[in-house]
Amino acid sequence: MAIQSIVYERRATFEEAQKEAGVGYENDLLLKDAQARPHDISAADIRSLPAFFGHSIAALGMIALRMGRRKLSVLDVGGALGGHFSVAKTTFGSSLEFDWAVVETKMYVDYGRSFIITPEISFFDSVEAVSQEVFHVAYLSSVLPYVSDFEGLLGAAALKSAPYLFISRTGLHDTEIPFLQTVTYDFGVVRYPGRILSRALLLERLEKTHELITSWDYDQYSVENRPYSAPSMLWRRRG
Question: Is the pTM for the entire model greater than 0.85?
C-alpha cells in the first residue's frame, strides 16, 4: 500500500485527538495488502533502509556483546507484523539468534498468529500477557508518542525486568504537543492520536530507573512540517 500524504495537526489534548482518530490502529485498512496465507518473515531486503534501522541494529549488537549472548529475547511493543525482527534476523544471520515477542492491537495479533509461521516470533495483545517472561531488551520504536499512558507502559513488569531499553522515533520538544496524524493511502485514510513528548519529562522518568549508554541523533518531521529531535537511545537498567 502506498502512502500519498501524512499530515500532523495540533490538538489541545491527546484525548481530543483520540476522539477524532476513531479506531486508529485497529482500522482494518492497515491489513489490506497483507498476505492472507501462511508465510515466513525471516528475510528482508536490507539494501536501503532508513537511518533508524542502523541505530537499532547497532543497539542489538551492543547488547549481545555486553551480555556475551548469541541469542537475545526481545520485547517489541508496537511491532506491527514484525518488520524490525525481519531486518534484525537478516542482518545478523546465524551470528545472533532471537526470541522476538511483538505486543500489538488485537487486529495485528490475530493476523500474526494466523498467517506468520516464523518460529522465532510470537504475538501478544498486551504487555500484561508477557509479564512473566524474561526479556533482554524492551524495544520501543515509534511507540511512546502513540500510547495514552507512556509512563504506565514504561512501568509495566515486562519492561521493568528487562536489563536494556531501546527507544527510537520518538519526537521530543520543550513542551508536549498533542496532535492528530492523518495518513492518506492509495486506498483510504487512517487517523492516529499522538504527541511530541516533553523532553524533560521523558528523560526525568527514564533516569530514575536507567542510565543512558549511547544515543544516535535523528530528526523526525511532524507538527507544522518541522523537524523534531527523535534520538535513538539505548538505556541500561540501574541496579
Answer: yes
